[in-house]
Amino acid sequence: MLFAVGHAKEIVNTFNIGSEDWIDVRSIAEIVKEEMHLPETKFRFTGGERGWVGDVPKMQLTVDKIKQLRWKPQTGSRESVRIAVRAMLAERLSP
Fold first, then answer.
1. Residue 42: which residues within 8 A CB-CB, separation 6 or more?
2. Residues 6+ apart with CB under 8 A from 33
3. What is the 3-class SS of 19-73, one letter each residue?
4. N or C end of the chain: smaller count of CB under 10 Å?
5. Alpha carbon of 30 to those of 40, 44, 55, 62, 89: distances in Å?
6. Phi, psi (rounded to 5 degrees) for 93
7. CA–CA separation, 15 and 54 (whole Å)
8. Could you say which DSSP state residue 90 is in?
9. Taking the mean position of all CA atoms in its chain, how far away is CA 71?
């Protein structure tokens, strides 16, 4: 966000800040399972192939606009999820 503020010329801007790839729910769940050291965990998905009403099976926002400012993502979706899970676990475990 600070990069966009420092590099955009217009007073008001809207940017998507993200990665150039995507990750599915199963992969997110697998990362959480790995980081929590829960190898025996089993997953059960409900809602059919599409999930629940309004569910988005794959979500990827374009980062083309912010890339025009010469910004580029430093991590992909998988690594970003792993970093976030580790941070949440560390926060939960700290006194």
1. none
2. 39, 41
3. CCCCCCHHHHHHHHHHHCCCCCCCCCCCCCCCCCCCCCCCCCCCCHHHHCCCCCC
4. C
5. 11, 12, 20, 25, 15
6. -90, -10
7. 24
8. H
9. 17
Is-above-0.90 flag for pTM? no
Amino acid at 4: A
Task: Name residue 11's amino acid.
Answer: I
CB 30 within 8 A of CB 37: no
Question: Which of 73, 82, 93, 58 is CA-nearest to residue 16?
Answer: 73
* Structure token digits, residue 86: 């580790």
